[in-house]
Amino acid sequence: MAVKIFIAMFVAIFAATMQSTEAITEEKKTELKAKLVPILTECGKEHSITLDYLKEFRQQQKRPDESNACFFACVFQKTGLLDDKGLFVEAKAAERSQYYAEEGELEKANEAVKACVSVNEQSVSDGPKGCDRAKLIYNCFLDQKQHFGYVY
């Protein structure tokens, strides 16, 4: 099975719902879940999204829509992937990749992060709120995952 670099780059979303993460040690998985479950829970309460909903969302390989985009913006903001201007923070995503990705997969993860910086150039209607940009970031990561052959 492919290494799940998608998760390494995108730890803010699915770390709490991962079932198979060969690229991440048990120790790092435990650490990641401990950090992210409170964020996912807090953002979930704010936006009426449950962890069960996220599991189903992941299993069905859905993409964000108007009903959940602000939840993803909340998670991205709280994990530093989205700044207070509503922009994707490349440095934070690269930092997360460096910590969680296997050494041999880091270059691919960094390429995907760099490709997703282009979302900052796209027009959005909600500015610093970040919901529209969160959808763009999420979709970019999914597209990059598919480009590199990662398993979702």
From TrEMBL:
One GO BP annotation of this record: sensory perception of smell
Localization terms from the record: Secreted
Predominant localisation class: secreted
InterPro entries, alphabetized: PBP/GOBP, PBP_GOBP_sf
One GO cellular component term noted in the UniProt record for this chain: extracellular space
Transmembrane segments: none
Keywords for this protein: Secreted, Signal
GO molecular function, one term: odorant binding
Pfam families: PBP_GOBP
Origin: domain of life: Eukaryota
Leader peptide range in chain numbering: 1-23
Annotated family: Belongs to the PBP/GOBP family.
The protein, known as: Odorant-binding protein 1
Taxonomic source organism: Streltzoviella insularis
